[in-house]
Design brief:
343 residues; alpha+beta; six-stranded mixed β-sheet; globular
């Protein structure tokens, strides 16, 4: 009986193997940017959804209380306390609460249990520190001030995903956080018009900054330092804005925008959701979107855009190259100027 033997199949040569590897490498190189772009598009959409939820929360707050929450609880405003100097912010210290806008919106973004742990007497527009009181969220409140609630410092360590842009990859890289800030109403920007206080990270002997809950979403205050309030924005220090006061139109006024807290070389900062102030607007170059200063509207998105929520709750993409005058008018709620189409 004759046994048939098949042909032996030759193995790949080294040249063929290298060619296959090269082809795979080229395909990966071609596909990787597309995959990264798709992921960034998804993150940008998720960021837009976060801002949409904040826009809805803003409207629900206004519907409930017939006004919007304050931009932040900073120094006393004129007429609130006869013994206090309005719009002051000392170089160090400061005994006001310095809660930002986001804590007030918590009940409307499914964070009511966390909000209920705040000292009730201190989450008020008209509660001003007097005499030797210290109401700061980062301090240790006395039992009388605490009233059985949780120390705000402990609350500040909660990390809330809806308050953070998914494109923010600074976790583990932070060198400092902004603990509080203030937009002065009687000083010309940019040198003395804004002031903020920071805490440095553990690497420099300071706070464990990554343990604190950050945010990329801040309200807009416009230019409160201009005489007559012509360019005031919606969210200001201890403001109580009503939608009826937004005479430029809700769709023509920016309410909330993205920010990243400043990135300069190895200095990487962030804002905290518990104490983030509102961002100023100006035609001064250093104040425009896209700069890396702590007081700029800015984003981590690769498309050259910043997401923002208008007062009507709609979410817009704003080009970092937006015209300076258009930007100022867009952030003001009653300046009477038209803005046209936002680039």
């Amino acid at each position: 009986m004759k046994v048939q033997t098949g042909r032996l199949r030759p193995a790949f040569t080294l040249v063929e193997l290298l060619v296959v590897i090269a082809i795979i490498g080229i395909l990966v190189g071609l596909l990787l940017p597309a995959v990264q772009a798709a992921r960034e598009a998804a993150r940008r959409m998720s960021c837009s959804n976060n801002l949409k939820q904040l826009g809805l929360a803003m409207h629900n707050f206004e519907s409930t209380y017939k006004r919007l929450p304050p931009g932040y609880l900073g120094p006393p405003r004129p007429g609130m306390n006869a013994t206090a100097t309005p719009y002051t912010d000392p170089a160090t210290g400061g005994n006001q609460q310095y809660y930002g806008m986001l804590p007030f919106l918590m009940p409307f973004v499914e964070q009511a249990p966390l909000y209920e742990q705040f000292p009730r007497d201190l989450v008020r527009y008209d509660r001003i520190a007097v005499s030797t009181e210290d109401l700061r969220w980062l301090g240790t409140l006395t039992p009388a001030l605490l009233g059985g609630a949780t120390q705000p410092w402990n609350l500040a360590q909660y990390k809330i995903p809806g308050f953070v842009c998914p494109s923010d990859a600074k976790e583990g890289k932070l060198t400092h956080v902004w603990s509080r800030g203030h937009i002065r109403a009687s000083a010309a920007p940019p040198s003395t018009g804004v002031t903020a206080h920071l805490f440095t990270g553990a690497a420099t002997g300071g706070w464990p900054v990554d343990a604190l809950g950050k945010t990329n979403y801040l309200g807009m205050c416009g230019r409160p330092d201009v005489s007559g309030g012509q360019f005031e924005g919606i969210f200001r220090n201890r403001s109580r804005t009503k939608f009826a006061e937004v005479t430029d139109g809700l769709s023509n006024t920016l309410a909330i925008t993205e920010a990243h807290g400043g990135v300069s070389g190895t200095s990487v900062g962030t804002w905290l959701w518990i104490s983030a102030i509102t961002l100023p607007a100006s035609t001064t170059a250093s104040w425009l979107p896209g700069n890396n200063n702590w007081f700029n509207a800015a984003s981590f998105h690769a498309a050259g855009t910043i997401n923002g929520t208008a007062a009507d709750g709609s979410v817009r993409s704003i080009a970092k190259t937006i015209d300076a005058t258009v930007w100022l008018n867009y952030c003001a709620m009653k300046d009477g100027n038209t803005i046209g189409e936002i680039p």
